[in-house]
Amino acid sequence: MAFSExxxxxxxxxxxxxxxIISLNQETPEARACKAVYETVRDMALSEFTWGFASSYKRxxxxxxxxxxxxxxxxxxxxxxxxIQRIYSESCRSQGFPFxxxxxxxxYTDVDDAVAKVTMRIVDSGLFPPHFxxxxxxxxxxxxxxxxxxxxxxxxxxxxxxxQSQQVAELTEGTQGKRRKERIPFVDARRGCVDSETSxxxxxxESW
Length: 208
What we know:
Elements: H1 5-16, H2 29-48, E1 55-59, E2 73-76, E3 81-89, E4 99-102, E5 106-109, E6 114-120, H3 130-145, H4 155-174, H5 185-191, E7 193-195, E8 200-202, E9 206-207
Antiparallel strand pairs: 1-6, 2-5, 3-6, 4-5, 7-8, 8-9
Helix pairs in contact: 1-3, 2-3, 3-4
């Protein structure tokens, strides 16, 4: 079942035992508080775990500027990404490579043809799975408890819901059907990688 932004906010407000809202544009203290923090808390929740629904692969754009002395290459940070999970080479390899993100918008790495696995900024609440909505609404409740008047004493309840939703998220995301070794989908298709029940390989010589 898809949830709207208003419904997610109302889940948070219900944890705190305060009045629900009709929309985020409503002229009530609850609606104004939700609207003020919704996007920030959403991005924080997305960044907290390696959510499968928010993960994607991006070919990185190399920068012409000279990288830092300890790195070989510099890339721009993808505009629609929240964080870099791993850096790969576009060659058919399974391992990740070291990298560093500087000033929030430059990625340094020794990889010459870098591809990043990233966490995307997902703004369509209809794409959120139930366990993410639980964690998001609980985190939103914590933020609202410190913003709305006369409910700061309910932050303990919000924290409890948050801890419970964290445990569910860790269990759910940790038991998703994961491949034995992670691959880059568009690289596989181009280089003829084969997926069998026991192994992954590219061409005739590269093993996974």
